[in-house]
Amino acid sequence: MTQGAADGLSLLTILVAWPLLVAVALVPLRDARIIHRVALIGAFVELAISLWMFVGFSAAPTATFQFEEQLPWIDAIGASIHVGIDGLSAPFLPLTALLTVVAVAQARTTVSHRQKPYLISVLTFSTASTGVFTALDLALFFVFWELMLVPTFVLIKLWGTGPGRSHAATKYVLAMLMGSVTLLAAFVLLSVNHSTVEGSLSFDYLALLEVEVPAGLGTVVFFLMAFSFTLKAPLFPLHSWLPPTLQEGPIGIGILLAGLKVGVYGFLRLIMPLTSTAFMQWRWLIAVLAIMAIIYGGLAALAQPDLRRLIAFAGVSHVGLALLGLSSGNADGVSGAVFLLANLGLTAAGLLLVAGFIYQRLGTTDVGALGGLAARAPALTAFALIFAFAEAALPGTSGFPGEFLALLGAFREFGAPSLIALAIVVLAAGYSLIWLQRAFYGPVMRDPVNHIVDLGPREASLAFVIAAAIVLLGIFPSLILDPAQSSVTQLVERLATTVDGLAGSM
C-alpha cells in the first residue's frame, strides 16, 4: 500500500511535528502528573503512527520514496520542505518513537526536578531526529541536524547525574558544532554544483542525485561530510565526546543518543549516493578506520569499570562494524549495516535502561560496587541477560543477523584482511559476560545491594517492550530486511555503476 503526497501531509508531516506539538501543549500545564501523562500519551501516539506507517510501507520491487510530501520553503536557494521515507529510513521511525516512549516513561521516577522542561527537551529531540530520518532536502536536513544540539545540551547540563556534566555538555556542543560547519559547507558545494550544471541552486535530495559531481569536488564534499558523520556516529578516533556524555548525562538522553546512530545514517543516505565516486575511491580508508574502531572500542569496553562507559565504547565498536558493512558496497554489507543500526538502538537503550535502574537504586553504575544482584533482583537480571546477549550477537537475538551480514559483506569484498573484524565477536562476548558475572553473579561488594528492590510493574513493562523487540527481530529479521531490500539494491547498483565508470576511464 503506497501512500501519496496527500496522505504524506496527514501522516509523515504530522509524525515529524507531533512531538514538538506535544511539547508546546505541556507549556501551560502545572500539575506534574498531568504533565507526564500528556507527554507519555503523546509519545505513544507517535509510536502508533510510526508503526502504522511502517506496516503500510510497500516493499515494492522498485525503490521509491513513500508518504512523500513537498511544500515550498525558500525558493531563492531552491530549498523546500520535502519529506519521505524509503526502505533505508522506514525502520528508524518506529525505533525513534519507541526510544522516545522509553525516555519519557522513565522520567516519571528518575527526574525529580523540573520535569516539564525535561520532557519538552526530550520531545524536541524526538522531532529533530525524526526529521533527520525523513528529510529529502539538504537545507531541511541541516535544520533538523542542528535542532538536535539544543535539547541535548540542555538535558546533559541541567539533568546530568555526574559532577562533570557541564564539561560533558560543553564538549558535546563544541564537537557537534565542528561537524556542523563542514556539513553545511558540503551542502552548499553540492547546491552550487547543481547551479553550475542546471542553472539554479537546489538543496533537493532527488534533484542532486541526478546531477554529476566532478571528481575533485566530489572528494572534497565526501571528506567534509565524512568528518561530520564520523564525529556524530561516533567513529574512532572522533569518539571522545561519547563516554563522558553517557556517564555524566541523564539516562533519557543517553538512550536517544546511543540508540539513534544518525551519523551512520548520514553515510547511508547522503555520502554513498551523492558522492558515490569518492566513496568507492576512499572506502578502503573507511574500512581501515572501521576495523580500528572495532578493536579499540571492544578492548576499551573490556577495561571499563563503569557500565555507562562500557556501553559507550561498545557502541564505538559496533559503529565500526556498521561502517565496515557499508564500505563493502555490496548488498549483504549494506543490509547488515541497516539491521545493525536498528539493533544498536534496541540494545543500547536496553542496557542504558538497566544502568538507570541500578543507578536509581544504588547511586552508582560502577561494576566494582555491585555484585550479587541476581539473587536479589531476578527480574532486573533476566532483562540484563537478554540485552547483554543481544550485545554479544547471540543467535536468536536482534544482534546476530546484522552482525553476520555485515561481516559476510566485508569478507566478500575485502577477503582475508576483513577477518580481523571477527574480533568483535570475541570482544563483545567478553565485555558482556564479564560485566554480567561481576555485577549480577559475583560476591556482594557493598551492603546497599543486599537491600535492593527489584523492578516494579512500570519498569518491567519498559524493559519487556525492548526485550520483546530484540527477540522478535532476532527470529524474524525479514521485518527489516525485506522492506529495505529494494532501496539497498538501488544503492548498490548505483555504487556498481560508479565502479564500472572508474574502470572504463582507466
Features:
506 residues; mainly alpha
Which strands sit side by side, in order, in the main sheet? 1-2
- For the report, how would you describe the main beta sheet? 2 strands, antiparallel
Question: From the alpha-carbon coordinates, what is the Rg to the nearest angstrom?
Answer: 22 Å
Q: What is the mean pLDDT?
A: 88
Q: What is the H-and-E element order?
A: HHHEEHHHHHHHHHHHHHHHHHHH
- Report strand %: under 5%
Characterize the structure shown.
The chain has 506 residues and is mainly alpha-helical. It has one domain. 74% of the residues lie in helices and 3% in strands. It contains 22 helices and 2 strands. It has a two-stranded antiparallel sheet. α4 packs antiparallel against α12, α15 packs across α19 and α16 runs antiparallel to α18. The longest helix has 34 residues.
Compile the SSE list and pairings.
Elements: H1 5-10, H2 12-26, H3 32-56, E1 66-74, E2 79-85, H4 92-110, H5 115-134, H6 138-147, H7 149-159, H8 165-198, H9 205-209, H10 215-232, H11 242-248, H12 251-259, H13 262-274, H14 276-302, H15 307-328, H16 331-362, H17 373-376, H18 378-391, H19 399-414, H20 423-441, H21 457-475, H22 478-505
Antiparallel strand pairs: 1-2
